[in-house]
Amino acid sequence: LLLLLVLGLQEAAERRRNRNRCFFNRTQEFCMCYNLSEETAGSIIQCLAATVVEFWGGDLEKYTDFPIQDLDDSTIETLGSLIVQKIVIGNVLVPEVLLARVLRFFSYTHVRELAFDSCIFQGTGDWSDMDGQSLPILSLSFHNVTCAPLTGHEPAFSSLGRWLGTLQELAVTGSRVTSLPCAIGRLLRALHSLSLAHNSLGDGSLAPAFCQGAFPQLQQLSLQHNNLSSYHGVCEGVGLLPQL
């Protein structure tokens, strides 16, 4: 009985450790990290040979005030040598101020896809450091995320304008979106694929979103599972998209 108890405790401890570390699948070049903390962040070194890295869980709030300095040459060289192509961040609370400070470092990487799944975006970030900054990310997706209404965030979008102008694919799904500011579409000049499925868009919210000059290169648009009721209204709402 004592032996079984000891084995049970060891197994429970192992499960706790496994919930706070990274696992690398060499065959698929895929790395999955769970609930990373300062104590277990060392296991992320396993992900250096991965093309896809996923981070699930963890507490980013504690790093909100962490000083983030400019990178030295050796760190920039290391980031440039990584082969990671896609990063997924899931089930975390994301302070926008922290995201705004670290996003610019993606310019030193080869990351082409960035996805947020089941995240809550909190607060307001200072995006001025991204003004004129380009990023290699061409595909951006948000699924089941919670954030402040997009309307009123035009200054932030303006600072991200150079990057957003090169973005090719965008998905905002299952996130209770009721409207999309016209200003966003005018910045997304190269976007050719947009998914707004499983949201709360109505017929009347389409024309303001797809205004004159918005999404000039858009070819694919997904609107299924919204609050749409009229084919005629939808066709009128997207009538200004020249490439659709």
TrEMBL record:
Gene3D superfamilies: Ribonuclease Inhibitor. The keyword Protein biosynthesis does not apply. One of its GO terms (cellular component) is Golgi apparatus. It is a lipid-anchor; GPI-anchor. Keywords: Cell membrane, Disulfide bond, Glycoprotein, Golgi apparatus, GPI-anchor, Immunity, Inflammatory response, Innate immunity, Leucine-rich repeat, Lipoprotein, Membrane, Repeat, Secreted, Signal. Residues 1-15 form the signal peptide. It is found in: Cell membrane; Golgi apparatus; Membrane raft; Secreted. GO terms for biological process: cellular response to lipopolysaccharide; inflammatory response; innate immune response; positive regulation of cytokine production; toll-like receptor 4 signaling pathway. It comes from the Eukaryota. The keyword Protein transport does not apply. One of its GO terms (molecular function) is lipopolysaccharide binding. PANTHER family: MONOCYTE DIFFERENTIATION ANTIGEN CD14. This is Monocyte differentiation antigen CD14. It comes from Spizella passerina. The lineage of its organism: Eukaryota, Metazoa, Chordata, Craniata, Vertebrata.
